[in-house]
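Q: Structure for this?
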Amino acid sequence: MTVGEPGRWAGDRALTARCLAGEESAWGELVARHGGRIFSHCRLAGLNPQDAEDVAQEVLISALGSLASYRGCALATWLYRLTHRRIADYFRSPQRRLVSVDGPGEPSNGLAGRPAEERDPESSAAAAEEAARTRRALAGLPEPARSILTAYYLYEAPVREIAEEMEMSVNTVKSHLHRGRTALRRAVEERHDL
Amino acid sequence: MICDDLELRLYDEDCRRALLGTAPMPEDVADHVAGCSACRKTWAEAARDTVRLTRDLQLAPPPSLVRRAAAVALQPPARPLLGWYDLGVAVTAGAVLVVVATLVPGADPLWQSAAFWTGAAGGFAASVIDRSLLLPSLGLRS
């Protein structure tokens, strides 16, 4: 699913309008559609699974409270912005506890969204390992590349919206994406070569 | 389009959709790629990466997150500390007691005034108690 084109926002606006009207199923739909992104964003930023869940929960509560102010971009981009700021607050707090994105609490579900039975156990394990390696490589990228790649690939935010959020030119964002993608591919391929 | 342009063009939304296989390759890109083997390779590589990264960066949310988030939506909205609702309840309760007081034989204005303030105070207290969730089951919450 790619979000971010103006035509796509109509669906986002309809969903938020239903949430604001108090429709419980709409809120459930929003959580189902974006909860994984928000949680993954927290984990990729280095939060341990419990803190990632707590922060994701706070982001969702905050989103519900300020949904009326959502406009002008894809809902995913708006949620990315909320999550990014909440993670920054988390890192300023003294109670933070960091673990690797492949820490003990991580569910081994690099194939999120695909039932495990779609693949045989061996290829499923290999794919999960490759996915974990990709996430590890992303977590190791310097800023702003890590945030840009997270917004583009995880939230599927359009380059123009990322550029506005990061206060950069569109071409600068594209250059970061290009270098970052190349670095991630090399990180995965190096492992294959071992 | 020249080869250098493709490197940045890959990140536009129409190209992303094509790389993910949900839309055809944009015409300008298709025209160029058709006659350039290096860019064909670049495109194929970008397609593999885009599919992989879009899929692999996302973890499934823990079920408890979904449950907790759903519970948030079920909570009633908080009312302000002192609002028109409380004032309305207080005045209504005071007025009811004034009416009752006028029915008492020999009631004077002082008696009616005392009845009003007693009713208003009682109504206000009831409203505050209502806020503390003692009365929602009676349907008295706004």
